Task: inverse folding
């Protein structure tokens, strides 16, 4: 169903186009005179002409009819670029891609939807793009609406949808319209847990009963295990593994462990799903007083979070989730005390005790949330990336069999000899 041969994708670095004729002339004049670019922002890197980045480099593989293939790798490995090439959003720099069938893709929240059209109108538009007639779409539209769980809002313009509603409708459309190939990026992370399970069950069902071919990208290794029968691991634009799911996940974990435990992350420029980061946005994360995010098991993680706020709010919370290397949840360390953000830039300190964690490498996830009057949480920002940190033993301690008892140690039990 899918065959890629030596596919590569090269991007030019730096600002390309989008400027005025006056600015271009200023740049040219400065370059001829050997002067600094007058249009460059303070601190911005001065890219050399012709400097490029290889997002994909010589990628070749085949996918048979009905196969469910997971594509995993670190951020920037080339996963989303590969899916965009297959969905014909952009063209490869080199190589060929052959697809034997119609493609229904869900690359990011809102892709393929027109904000001014209602949910119902967008269903018909997506069906028409796939070559379906109005009669064919009429036969499926009730199933699409029912599966999406947003019947109440189906005749509302989708620009008013939350990110979760976008995902529900987009997946329902992709799963029910007639296509031989489904391409799913990691946008299912936006949906609630029950809907994620519903989506995975649906993808399993259409693969088995309708022999649809599925390409699925995710950083959640549990969903990869549930859905996929084969895994492709990408690293810096190249395929480093293609085969068994568990072996592929192990290869991905080894590759991830090799990355540096950075003490600082820039988050402002990270792409969010539709609606996330609009009013409040994580701009930076710092593991305070550390040159590397490594801790002994008797330390406390001190985080400094830079958050930009478009308005004042005194009813917000920071939620912290800790997962292990394969993205399985270890613990939800709860929510912070209520914080107040002022309009503009804010700096927030977060303390995370790690004395219950066994020595290992973990990944930290952050969310900025609030609660409505019914106690239901609302997520304002989630960067959808994780931040690795490492815990090591302090002094002499018992060897802990992690595979038997798990990563979390409980030291609250005491014993006293009375006689």
Result:
């Amino acid at each position: 169903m899918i065959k890629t041969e030596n596919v590569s994708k090269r991007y030019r670095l730096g600002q390309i186009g989008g400027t005025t004729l006056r600015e271009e002339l200023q740049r040219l004049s400065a370059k001829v005179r050997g002067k600094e670019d007058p249009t460059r922002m303070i601190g911005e890197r001065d890219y050399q002409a012709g400097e490029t980045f290889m997002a994909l480099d010589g990628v070749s593989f085949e996918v048979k009819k009905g196969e469910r293939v997971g594509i995993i790798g670190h951020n920037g490995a080339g996963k989303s670029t590969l899916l965009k090439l297959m969905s014909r959003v952009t063209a490869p720099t080199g190589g060929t891609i052959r697809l034997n069938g119609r493609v229904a893709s869900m690359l990011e929240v809102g892709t393929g939807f027109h904000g001014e059209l209602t949910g119902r109108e967008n269903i018909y538009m997506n069906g028409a793009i796939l070559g379906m007639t109005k009669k064919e779409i009429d036969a499926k539209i009730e199933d699409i609406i029912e599966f999406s769980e947003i019947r109440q809002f189906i005749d509302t313009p989708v620009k008013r949808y939350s990110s979760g509603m976008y995902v529900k409708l987009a997946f329902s459309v992709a799963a029910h319209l007639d296509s031989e190939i489904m391409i799913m990026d990691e946008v299912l992370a936006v949906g609630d847990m029950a809907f994620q399970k519903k989506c995975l069950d649906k993808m399993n069902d259409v693969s088995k009963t309708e022999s649809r071919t599925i390409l699925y990208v995710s950083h959640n290794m549990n969903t990869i295990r549930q859905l996929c029968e084969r895994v492709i691991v990408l690293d810096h634009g190249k395929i480093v593994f293609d085969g068994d799911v568990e072996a592929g996940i192990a290869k991905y974990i080894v590759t991830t462990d090799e990355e540096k435990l950075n003490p600082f992350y820039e988050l402002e420029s990270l792409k969010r799903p539709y609606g996330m980061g609009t009013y409040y946005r994580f701009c930076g994360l710092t593991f305070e007083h550390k040159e590397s995010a490594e801790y002994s098991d008797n330390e406390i993680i001190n985080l400094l979070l830079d958050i930009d706020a478009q308005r004042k709010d005194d009813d917000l919370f920071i939620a912290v989730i800790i997962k292990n290397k394969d993205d399985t949840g270890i613990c939800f360390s709860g929510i912070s005390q209520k914080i107040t953000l002022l309009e503009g830039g804010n700096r927030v300190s977060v303390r995370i005790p790690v004395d219950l964690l066994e020595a290992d490498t973990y990944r930290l996830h952050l969310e900025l949330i609030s609660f409505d009057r019914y106690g239901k949480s609302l997520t304002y920002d989630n960067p959808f990336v994780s931040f690795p940190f490492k815990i090591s033993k302090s002094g002499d301690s018992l060897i802990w069999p992690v595979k038997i008892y798990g990563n979390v140690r409980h030291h609250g039990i005491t014993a006293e000899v009375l006689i």
Summary: The chain has two domains: 54-257, 264-405. Residues 150 and 165 are 7 Å apart (CA to CA). The chain has nine helices and 20 strands.
